[in-house]
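Input sequence (174 aa), recorded before submission:
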Amino acid sequence: MPLELKIKDRVAKIEVLEQNGQQYRVVIGGKEYDLDVVQVEASVYSVLYQGQSINLELIEGKTPNLYKINTRTDHFEVEVVDPVSRYKQSKTSGNEKREQLIEAPMPGRIVKIMVKEGDEIREGETAIIVSAMKMESEYKAQVSGLVKKVFVKEGDTVEGGAALIEIKPVANDN
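Predicted structure, token format:
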């Protein structure tokens, strides 16, 4: 069953196609990867991809499906969303919309900015594409509204936590 991983405003779909022992063939964001995953300690995993090893410490968060991931150089929170959870969340979320600040969850390079200040954007539309750790990630609007501020330009290198785009929600008068 495909899952979605949410890291701040970045959403990546992931699906395990094949597993043979510690070897996994997965699709992440539409791209296929062959990974070796070895549990080193209770909450520490070594992930080998194309000859490069990354050690990840996986710590359960305060709520179900929320995890904190620590690497040697970075740390971030990941929410794992399965289709059933997404459906339940959509049925229980309120109508109140707040401003959205899209931030880089980790260091990266701005590949493409899909919007400019003053543009209208709908919830779920891609606002910006960032390359980090050899993967391109799409950051999507979590609210429908107007692009209030674009803090970066294409080609910029950004640190984790850097503000990328601010979106002001538009009131829905039905």
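Checked by second reader. The mean pLDDT is 84.
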